[in-house]
Amino acid sequence: MNIVKYIDSFLYENDLWVVTEYMEGGSLTDVAAANMMTEGQIAAVSRETAQGLQHLHKHGVIHRNLKGINVLVSLTGDIKLTDFGFCSQISDPAHATRTTMIGTPCWMAPEVITHKEYGPKVDIWSLGIMAIEMIESEPPYSNQDPLKALHLIATNGTPTISNPENLSSTFRDYLAKTLEVDVEKRPDATQLLQHPFFSKAEPLRTLVPLIKAAREIAQNKRLIWPRSNPS
User: Fold this and answer.
1) CA pair distance 84, 101, nearest whole angstrom
2) Which of 65, 100, 119, 205 is 20 to 30 A away from residue 76, measured at CA?
């Protein structure tokens, strides 16, 4: 079901600690920042994430903070969602709505920013932004102040990417569907999983070299960081 497994939780010195399975490959953000991903690899990650969202939504849960850093990978290419601190539990998944403005600015859907009623499809918008994150190594408006980013999302609607002509027509259509401003036209997770873009998905094992490359870069940074020149 592509959700990080919960193991246990306990209080330690008045802090709540949550124990989950260990995803040794790190986050998708690390992988996307360190590598150029193919359409097939992006499709594979997006499909696995969409399946995780489908599971959450069927059980009445909206993630509300989907982004690359909250998608974890294993050294075998498994993809799992984590960080459910912003989740909303809804009693009727078909009709429930929320109005709370919550999430991370660059990944937030326009209806969240404008305080309209929203439901699980806000996660589909974030999934589309995450695809851009995999294309360009960062989400749209990441170089803007958070308040400016919120304004741009609400004003501009569907974001653009630098070189859309480099993408297949199927991928461009997938982005258009997930980043549809009109919520009624935006697909839910089950509908989205029927999109032909996912037929381009490469086997998850093709992600392994990318994950290992990202880990190596991260390890090298940790080795270099403590070494400072003596003053």
Assistant:
1) 16
2) 65
